[in-house]
Amino acid sequence: MRHSKKFNHLGRKTAHRKAMLANMAASLIVYKRIKTTVAKAKALRVYVEPLITKSKDDTTHSRRVIFSYLKDKEAVTELFREVANKVANRPGGYTRILKTGNRLGDNAEMCFIELVDYNETYSDSKTEAKPKTRRSRRGGSAKVTEETVDTGAEVVETKELGSGEDTVDPVVEEQIEHVEKTDALKQEENTDDIATEPPAKKTEEKISEKTEEVAGSEEKEIILKPETPPKEDKKVKIEKKEAKKITPEVKADDPKAKAEVVKGEKKDKAEKQDKPKKTVAKENKKPVAEDSKKEKKEETKKDAKKDTE
User: Fold this and answer.
1) Rounded-to-integer distance, Cα 85 and Cα 56, Å
2) If you write DSSP's letter for every residue of 140-171 in order, what string do you get?
3) Residue 148 · residue 132 · CB < 8 Å
4) Distance, CA of 104 to chain centre
């Protein structure tokens, strides 16, 4: 019988119910979110939130008390090491229930139960607090001023309700007039300078600027283009090669070099002597062949005459 017992028994006996809630609380602390039925989530919320509040006081006694409920060393260390620091500034309400609909089969209501500070989508850390404003009356009902409460902020508006015109301090008016006068004086000085300058000076300045630009461009071209050596004519190159062949440089102390030079001179002489012989032989061969051809033609003509006779 219930006997005015208001908590949900969840269809289980005392030992089974306490073991189930202990396991669910340990998994919630370790994983920060679990999926279960709405009835079990509401029972778990009542079970786990007092334990989280007790974990803010990190003492041996509170650790032993929480361990007697959870019966899991990893969950206890996680609770005191991370969760307690994360939830230190929150005065209760550490969990949130998000309903997901009914379950197929028994049509039970399902939900997610999670720790509030570990859900970034619903966290209020991104939202910035707007500065609060305060209205104060000065000088009766004619004027109403609006000021900001935050430090470092200035007066936003000062208006007269009766006339509808903006009121400005006399000090600010004097500063504005002074600035306007200085701007007008500067403009007059600039116009005077432009009128007094003769046109000859302007033309001279323009010419000097152009000459400087041209000189600067020429210097850049000179720097960019590398110096290339002048090209030599083909005749000069041939003459240098012949001079090297005719007069090779020989050191006085190198006997090997001298011997090589002597050998080269001998080869040149032999080549010069052999060349005319070959040409003479060729010239002699040509007239012999021409004479033989003439003789053959004459013989053929004689034979042709004989045949005709």
Assistant:
1) 8
2) TTTEEEEEE-STT----EEEETTT--B---HH
3) yes
4) 51
pLDDT at 179: 78
Q: Is 92 left (phi over 0), alpha (psi -120 to 50) or beta?
A: left
Question: What is the per-residue pLDDT across 101-147, written as a single tens digit (0 to 9) for each?
Answer: 999 999 999 999 999 999 888 766 554 455 566 666 665 554 444 44
pTM of the full structure: 0.42
Q: Hey, what CATH class is 14-118 in?
A: alpha beta
Q: Where are the domains of the chain?
A: 14-118, 133-167, 177-225, 259-293
Indicate the range of 78-82, 146-150, 228-232 predicted with least confidence. 146-150
pLDDT of 271 over the 60 cut = yes
Residue type, position 29, single letter: I
Query: Nearest Cα to 118, choosing from 92, 83, 91?
Result: 83
In sequence order, the β-bridge partners of residue 109 are: 102
Give the 3-state secondary structure of residue 32. Answer: coil
Name the strands in the sheet holding 157-160, side by side, starting at the edge strand that comes first in the sequence: 133-138, 143-148, 157-160
> In 3-state terms, the chain is what percent helix, strand and coil (to 5)?
60, 10, 30
